[in-house]
Amino acid sequence: MKIRLDYQCLLSALIMFISCVSATEDDTELGAESGLLRSLKPHYQIADHEPLPHLTHPFVLIEQLQTDLFSHLLPLLVVVESLETDIVPSYSNGASFSRSVVISDGKLNERVDNLPVHFQRRAVIPNINEMQESSDNVSGVKISARSRIEVIPLTRQELLLLSKAQRFMEDNWNDVTGFIDSVNGYTQTTMWDLGSAISGILALEALGVVESQLTQIRLEKLLATLMSMPLYDNKLPNRQYNTVTGLPSGPYSKSASHGNGWSALDLGRLYIWLEVIKQQKPQLSHQVDKITDKWKLEDAVKGKTLFGIKLTSKGEHFRQEGRLGYLQYAAKGYQLAGLNVDKAYDCRHLGEVEVEEKTLLIDKRNLPFFTLDPYLLYAIEVGRPKDCWFQLNTLYQLHKQHFERFNRLLVYAEDSLNRKPWFLYNNIYYQGDAWWSVSSSGKEVPKQNVQIFSNKAALAMSMLFDDEYATLLADKVIKNSLKHYHVPTGLFSDGAENVAYNINTNAFILVSLWFKSRNYTPILM
């Protein structure tokens, strides 16, 4: 190893110093990061690198030490094996949930059944309490690329976010199936969450912190499980699966049907990322094609739009799925699969409303969940279309104007919670009210349980727009994340942190950083 002895001593001393600080179990920013270093150290080796710059003052602010130290140590650490840690639920006695949402049983289900326009949502995992590679150096991080896109450096703070999101991916990886837990330590996933898992796995390689061989192994395992896992009615993936066994979970999972239906929206997201695998890893194209040839995605299309299935005690319900934003985003996956879903882009169901003097498009049909998520996902993964449904610029200006008027940072998105009801649609507008949060069943929640700032959505907006407000959003995400091992979800209206560490937050953080490193070029080529 071509490293001078004094350099080795300095690095060892720094690691020992941080370990000592963390041993006090102090809940400071330094303590949180030192725990990270301490747990990663046995799995890393020192690579050739220029000597660390001297610290000019012995009494450095903790935050400065944290950012300086990690920005210089990160390129020195080379993964030699994947982490194997005992995973335990991190909050609420293990209460967890996933990205997908379905119509719940009971009164709401009966009411929806009687509506003239049926709408099938996604399934919520129940609360358990109830390629080519470049050698470009980007701020000490090597960027992988398959095209001649100019590489944009990540800042020290962005490298911190990268390390925290990577830690979530490592901690929740399941070696047998290749699946990643939807929420920290909770062994459930949906097809939407698997799309997020694929995105995070690819982003880690693209950002230069995971070698291509490891990415290949992980994706091969994930794809092998997708190929072998039981399908609902032998047609399409069930709404949820166990990440350890790769078997269907939830209602009717042990019956002949292998579950309680499929989510058309979740499948659309997954198909987008299966296409990205084929673009980024052409050697895996055959494996992806075998999966999509086996699945009968055409059964989720009727009348050129998306339909999901929900099996209940009353029978099997086949309903149109998706509203403004979500429908068009998911439909992109169906288009990539060669299916005609033109009606999904029909804007005749849309109306207009005024929110703080901004004119917004809304879906006039029932249960019109309206968050930033599908617009941000589409812009970063696919691009910014000039279509009637796409209104990201207006939504950004609305959030920016709200801050200028009320001096309050709002970023309304759907997110997992570490409080009841465990999952929220934080709607920009919902059935007559602006800034209105509801559960997955459309019910109002107590004000203190409303999340008003989404870290994943805020960072994505900061990558898509370039002004002082975008900088404020990015700074807020970094501040919110400083003392956490993983990137937390966001902030509640009472100022408390939402620590429902989950795959959708951490994976989208990684993909947003990947988007920046690609000179703000969408991922899908």
UniProtKB/TrEMBL annotation:
The keyword Signal applies. Residues 165-518 form the DUF3131 domain. The keyword Plastid does not apply. Coiled coil: none annotated. Residues 1-23 form the signal peptide. InterPro entries: DUF3131 (IPR021478). Keywords: Signal. This is DUF3131 domain-containing protein. It comes from Shewanella surugensis.
